[in-house]
Amino acid sequence: MGNKKLLAYCGLYCSDCAGYSGEIVEAAKIFKNKLTKYKFERTAKYLFSKPLKDYNKFIKMLDFISDLKCSTICRDRKEEETTCTIRKCCIEKEYYACHECSDFEKCDKLQTMVGLHRDSCVKNLRAIKEMGVEKWITEAKRYWFGSDVDE
Length: 151
Hints:
Helix content: 40-55%
Order of helices and strands: HHHHHHHHH
Number of helices: 9
Largest sheet: none
Mean pLDDT: 93
Distance between the termini: 22 Å
C-alpha cells in the first residue's frame, strides 16, 4: 500500500526519486570511501595523471552528490524552505495536487518540470484524475523520467 502523502503536488511520487530513497547518495559515499581506503588519489596522480587530471574535481562532485538526499518531502516543507510555484499554487487553490485543476495540461508552472521529467507529471496527473490517488499509487505505472526514456 502506498502513502498518499508521498504524492507531490506536480504528480510525481516521492518514493520513485533517488533523492528520497538515498540510493545514489549512499552509493557516492561508499564509492568515495573505497577510493579513500585504497588511496586512489595516488593512483590518479602517479599512474593516470593525464586521464585523471581532474580527480580532485571528481571527489568534490562525489561530496556534492553525497548531500543530495531530500531532508523532507515537499508536503512537509515549510513555506520558507521552498520556491516551488506548483506547490504554492496548489496550496492557494486548496488542491491536493494539480490533477484537481482543469488547466493542468497546459499550465506554465508544470513546464518547469519538463527538462528533467519530460511528460511524466502530465501523464501521472491524467492517470490520477482518472483513477483516483489511492488506486494510482498502488496500481498504475508511475512515470518519473517521461515516456521517452526506458525505465
